[in-house]
Design goal:
Elements lengths: L15 E4 L2 E4 L4 E3 L10 E2 L2 H12 L5 E2 H8 L8 H14 L6 E4 L3 E4 L3 E4 L3 H8 L20 H8 L1 H7 L2 H10 L9 E2 L7 E6 L5 E8 L6 E8 L6 E2 L7 E8 L5 E9 L5 E9 L6 E5 L8 E3 L5 E4 L13 E4 L4 E4 L10 E6 L5 E6 L5 E6 L6 E2 L7 E6 L5 E8 L2 E8 L5 E7 L1 E6 L5 E6 L5 E6 L11 E2 L7 E6 L5 E6 L6 E6 L7 E2 L4 E2 L6 E2 L6 E6 L9 E6 L4 E5 L6 E6 L5 E7 L5 E9 L2 E9 L3 E5 L4 E5 L6 E4 L7 E4 L18 H5 L2 E4 L2 E8 L2 E7 L8 E6 L4 E8 L4 E7 L5 E6 L7
Antiparallel strand pairs: 1-2, 1-8, 2-3, 3-4, 5-7, 6-7, 9-57, 10-11, 11-12, 12-13, 14-15, 15-16, 16-17, 18-19, 19-20, 20-21, 22-23, 23-24, 24-25, 26-27, 27-28, 28-29, 30-31, 31-57, 32-33, 32-56, 34-35, 35-36, 36-37, 38-40, 39-40, 40-41, 41-42, 43-44, 44-45, 45-46, 47-48, 48-49, 49-50, 51-52, ...
């Protein structure tokens, strides 16, 4: 979904600058060359390349030596001399002009030749600079709305702030950590490579971070562990997996000497192997500790004594792996923690307290909360009552608080829970997930996800035919997800931030001019909207005026008029709603207490909803036109289930595994019900899962099909993440939201001091 976070270089007079005929967005690290035209695609650069450009701009056309560039852009490191050459090459390629922008001065350094004009300046800066403007101003663009100053004036306005912005990385990190009144952002982005960096783990002293990074230098792709200091410096590869291998979920040992992680190896025939690995944090050859299953990786943490690991549920709902387990490293044997746990509960992301006396964990998904249990087992205690989507947790070094990520409003943000008082504090870092806190240092690393998504459609090909290339549904510069097509295939609703804030949009397919946002409604983007059989209304969970904890409700929206009506449910907070074929009956998934979800069948009687039947442990349910029944997913049981219209006779319809003895992996590897449900297609012609695996992330796969006939064609061969699907059986078009430019980065920040009790 749409993401926002503060810029790193806020000391500059503006975040946009014209260099020659190209536009540079410093905060986004993007250059739009003039040759690309008004609708051209920006070129993304590394943080170092952008910093180098700012240094050249700051020297006002003078020659800058390689030594100065190394000391300024790569301080406190020992980079090779070629890093400057590579950064300059990146810049020249991005500018893409026949005119030289950056001149190489043999044996001296580099000089910026192109004129510079800062854009979008605050009024005070513009006025202060006007008196110092050169007699012959640089060329101005034909855009009177943009405020402009020349190179000399810009340098005068910057002063010492420019050095702070592009100076030593360690100084920048300390400035972020120290706070104060200098309007510094609350965190530091420490990675900037193309592709995705994720699963960070801080060393015990907080000086280094290890994380997984995806690389594809030879077209075969692999995910390796990367290591760097907690500053924006060049990382080094810690592991060197083979093509097709993935090194995932690294976790630093309490003594700082070892790193545990998963290694998955995909075979050429489609099979896979998985091992929990250990290696020295200084580098070397990793060795396996225990085997694992690649389709149900379980988040784990170290005991402070370094002798055992604690594992949570797999979030894939297999029986027996939805509770907490402890692995003894010396014997490689595991045992289930003896504690109170319901069969339908999913207990995720366990973490030992720094003294080893307690285990904090997340219980359940969609309506998740933090819980605490003694390390020896026993009765868990509920710590929070926010019932939201959670994305990781970690203890503070003093054991007094827990840092975690949870959906607040319309994006996940970092929060701190005081364990004794139960008080929750916002840390001021939005769009942040999966925090890792250093054992002996009050600092946190986390993932900043930056993956814009777009709406595509592709026609399902006839049997034996290849799929055509996907096409964009609507042009947009925003992020769009969770499409839902009307039963007649003419209308579509989806979630988008195309005008800045996140809204539900509706329109006619093929007519971009018909798109309109739904006013007075803010969606909670878990699942797509569900259409009524007559195509007049949709159901979706959201709020009238902003999503905050506890106020989500089920709404009925009329896209043609924009009318929004809240439905009064007799009980439970909803997470999803859908119509049956009869307009007077609804399926609603809602909270049953302590984050457990269940399904209720309601009948409308005037303005009242009367419960007719219910099922426990249901995460999402839809009407199935092909069987005239109900299909649904469960939290604690993998696969697609089926029941009658009265929710009678529930049974497992398809376990969503590959064909017995076949070469395909599970239909959605490593995914729990949440991702399964976003890939389900129901129609009067049958049901399908838009699956993943076997080198394709958008594959048409029949549900409950005969052995050998399940796997269908690959519909989109690009790498990326699928965030929602909708199918029009009349035309055969599959509509889906897909992100192909995953550029998630690692952030770092200082934690505030925990107040004394």
């Amino acid at each position: 979904m749409p993401k926002q976070h503060p810029s790193l270089l806020q000391s500059l007079p503006s975040q946009r600058v014209r260099v020659g005929d190209s536009i540079v967005d410093v905060a986004a690290r993007e250059i739009t060359p003039a040759s690309a035209g008004a609708d051209g695609t920006p070129q993304r650069l590394s943080l170092k390349a952008i910093d180098l450009l700012v240094v050249l701009i700051g020297h006002g056309g003078k020659v800058v030596s390689r030594e100065t560039l190394l000391e300024t852009v790569w301080p406190d490191t020992l980079p090779g001399d070629d890093v400057v050459t590579q950064a300059v090459a990146q810049l020249r390629k991005a500018f893409g002009s026949d005119e030289p922008y950056i001149e190489t001065i043999a044996k001296h350094g580099y000089r910026l030749l192109a004129p510079v004009q800062w854009l979008d300046l605050p009024e005070a800066v513009e006025q202060a600079s006007a008196a110092q403007a050169p007699a012959t101003p640089v060329r101005a663009p034909a855009r009177p709305a943009l405020r402009i100053i020349g190179t000399v004036a810009a340098l005068a306005a910057l002063g010492f702030a420019l050095w702070l912005a592009i100076g030593a990385d360690r100084e920048r990190a300390q400035r972020v950590a120290g706070g104060g009144d200098d309007a510094a952002p609350p965190f530091l982005k420490i990675t900037s490579a193309t592709g995705a960096e994720f699963s960070p783990s801080l060393s015990p002293d907080g000086s280094q971070v290890v994380y997984s990074g995806y690389v594809d230098t030879d077209g075969k792709g692999r995910t390796q562990l990367m290591l760097q200091t907690t500053a924006p410096v060049e990382p080094r590869a810690l592991t060197h997996p083979l093509a097709g291998e993935m090194d995932l979920m690294p976790a630093w040992s309490p003594d700082g000497r070892q790193i545990a992680f998963y290694r998955i190896r995909r075979g050429a025939s489609g099979g896979s192997s998985c091992h929990l690995m250990l290696m020295a944090s200084a580098g070397g050859e990793p060795h396996p500790v225990a085997s694992c299953e690649s389709d149900r990786l379980r988040k784990f943490g170290w005991h402070p004594d370094g002798k055992q690991l604690v594992f949570g549920a797999s979030n894939a709902g297999q029986p027996g792996v939805n509770a907490i387990e402890v692995l003894d490293l010396a014997s490689a044997t595991s045992r289930k923690l003896d504690y109170t746990h319901a069969a339908s509960d999913l207990d995720l992301a366990p973490a030992y307290s720094p003294d080893g006396q307690w285990i904090a964990f997340q219980r359940n998904v969609s309506r998740g909360d933090l819980w605490l249990v003694p390390a020896a087992g026993g009765q868990p205690e509920r710590l929070t009552r926010i019932e939201s989507n959670l994305y990781g947790l970690a203890w503070s070094p003093d054991g007094k608080s827990i840092v975690f990520s949870a959906f607040r409003g319309q994006e996940p943000s970092l929060l701190s829970l005081d364990v004794q008082s139960r008080r929750i504090t916002e840390l001021g870092i939005g769009n942040a997930r999966y925090p890792s806190v250093a054992l002996k240092d009050a600092s946190v690393a986390f993932v900043i996800e930056e993956m814009p998504t777009s709406l595509y459609r592709v026609r399902i090909p006839a049997q034996g035919q290849a799929a055509a290339a996907p096409e964009t549904v609507f042009p947009s510069s925003g992020s769009e997800l969770l499409p839902s097509v009307s039963p007649d295939g003419r209308q579509i609703v989806f979630v988008s931030d195309r005008t800045g804030d996140v809204r539900v949009w509706s329109g006619e397919i093929g007519r971009a001019s018909s798109l309109r946002p739904i006013e007075n409604f803010v969606p909670f983007p878990r699942h797509p909207a569900a259409w009524s059989a007559d195509g007049k209304t949709v159901l979706m969970v959201g709020a009238n005026n902003g999503i905050e904890n506890g106020n989500e409700a089920l709404f009925e929206i009329t896209p043609a008029t924009g009318a929004v009506r809240k439905l009064a449910l007799p009980e439970g907070r909803p997470t999803y709603g859908a119509y049956l074929a009869e307009p007077g009956r609804l399926l609603v998934v809602s909270d049953r207490g302590a984050g457990r979800l269940g399904l209720t069948l309601y009948e409308r009687r005037s303005e009242q909803l009367q419960a007719l039947a219910s099922l426990d442990d249901v995460a999402l349910a839809r009407f199935d036109p092909s069987s005239r029944g109900v299909v649904f997913f469960r939290n604690a049981s993998w696969g697609l289930w089926q029941a009658g219209l009265a929710l009678d006779g529930p049974r497992l319809l398809d376990d969503l595994h590959a064909d017995p003895g076949g070469s395909l992996p599970r239909i959605v590897p490593s995914a729990g019900f949440y991702l399964q449900s976003r890939r389900l297609v129901t129609s009067d012609r049958g049901n399908w899962i838009v699956g993943a695996g076997d080198g394709c992330n958008v594959r048409w796969i029949a549900v409950n099909a005969a052995a050998g006939s399940r796997s269908g064609p690959c519909l989109d061969s690009r790498g990326g993440e699928l965030t929602g699907v909708s199918y029009d059986p009349g035309s055969g078009w599959l509509y889906y939201s897909y992100g192909t430019g995953d550029a998630s980065d690692i952030g770092w920040a200082r934690l505030p001091q925990t107040p004394a009790h």
